[in-house]
Amino acid sequence: MGNVFDNPSFFSKYMELRSDYNYNDYLEHPAMESLLPPLKGRSVLDLGCGYGAYAMSFMRKGSSSYLGIDSSSHMIEKARTENAGAGISYRVLDLKSLDTLSTVFDVAYSSLVFHYIEDFDALLRNIYAILSDDGVLLFSQMHPLLTASYGYSGYFEGDYFAFSSYQEEGRREGRWFKEKVVSYHRRLSSIMNSLSDSGFIVDRVLEPIPREEDIREFSQLERDLVRPTFLCIRAIKKKSK
Amino acid sequence: MGNVFDNPSFFSKYMELRSDYNYNDYLEHPAMESLLPPLKGRSVLDLGCGYGAYAMSFMRKGSSSYLGIDSSSHMIEKARTENAGAGISYRVLDLKSLDTLSTVFDVAYSSLVFHYIEDFDALLRNIYAILSDDGVLLFSQMHPLLTASYGYSGYFEGDYFAFSSYQEEGRREGRWFKEKVVSYHRRLSSIMNSLSDSGFIVDRVLEPIPREEDIREFSQLERDLVRPTFLCIRAIKKKSK
Fold it and tell me: What is the mean pLDDT of each run of 10 residues along chain A (241 residues)?
């Protein structure tokens, strides 16, 4: 199955969305920044790096090296053109094939990708294997409250947010720019247990809340005063499972 | 004298109580049982023990001792009458005054009490202080999705469950048999972070799902196929914070 980001029409619409100041910029990105471990002298692996939006920023913060991987060759091409620099490299690689990497990393970073991954336990096993001792896994995903319902991400009725099927894990199909997008719903408890079973200690969990001044600029953020859109987790690799 | 069950108002309240009781029985209690650490030779502190419903069962599982504490002298009186035995003791003590206990315990257990506690961080600090190294904290509470909304625990609309104010933590007032009941809403992320900050490693999280055969017996459980009613957490005391 082709990567949806390799579809030119989808890709251009996605880039338009990304170039606007958006939900991710106001909520997910500041939350992830606040969770970043010290990067000085540490190697970073960016899982599902897209066009490498954060590569330069990680290097500026002192990372010894940055490897961005993404399954879309289109994205990696764009990353190599737009976000190149000393210590930065990219590779077309599916997250399912992490075990083909032979290097060890100090930090595994992933922004809004894990809810597209079917086998979370296998992914975590592979990340555990390529992290150094006390290595850090920092990731964000769509909040389980938004991946729960079938077909779309729930609805608002006044100040109330309604969702269904939270307890039922598995495949969900939605539409994004008319393209079918498949994601996988996992309950918060399952995410925590998978991390624990894979040898990680969860150190910090965030359900980002918008700032008042940002809501004044971008009123849609008000919804995140009711329910979170994103879930961000920082976990540390235990020395022995 | 007429039968009290012939009083419609009493009867409906009684049935409500029974259905609450069933809920715990079918969902919360089996989940907590599945999370119990080995009890053989270990001392247990039951926080908010009520009438000591689990005291005998803990002793049968091999606990070296059981202390149940509760702020209600009425409950402790009932516990001493109904659930007494060798190694079992009870004490009228508020969870706020845990620091007056001088003993150390191997297991701190608490069923459906923590959502009534205002200062969760202080509670966890006190529990940490009276746990042995590698001691286990096992607790359940109302799920944050049910403590979120003001006044009541959200509503169903078909297969959808609606809640409000999840992101807004703090005091909630509800009614139970016309009595005002105060509880405190905390987001799942905050619960996790408080545990981590207090020196605990979260080992297992459960959002209990009802069994098919139980739903056939008690159809209200079907709602827990959509959203969880309870949250159960097992956490281990880290040797050094």
Answer: 67 63 86 98 98 97 98 97 97 96 96 97 98 97 96 91 98 82 96 98 97 91 96 91 49
CATH hierarchy code of domain A4-142+188-237: 3.40.50.150
* Residue to substitute from B32, B136, B147, B188, interface A, most A β-carbons within 10 A: B188
| CB within 8 Å: A165 and B226 | yes
| Predicted-assembly ipTM surpassing the 0.90 threshold | yes
Spatial neighbors of A173 by CB under 8 A, at least 6 apart, are A150, A151, A180, A181, A182
CA angle, A63 as apex, A57 and A65 as ends, to 5°? 105
What is the phi-psi region of residue A88: left when phi exceeds 0, alpha when psi lies from -120 to 50, beta otherwise?
beta
CA angle, residues A192, A227, B233, in degrees to nearest 5: 30
Cβ distance of A226 and B166 shorter than 8 Å: yes
Q: Where do the structural domains in chain B lie, given as residue ranges?
A: 4-237
> Between chains, do A160 and B149 touch, taking CB under 8 Å as contact?
yes
Q: What residues contact A94, with CB distance under 8 A and at least 6 apart?
A: A71
Q: Which fold is adopted by the domain B4-237?
A: Rossmann fold (3.40.50)
User: Residue B233: closest CA among chain A residues belongs to which residue?
Assistant: A189
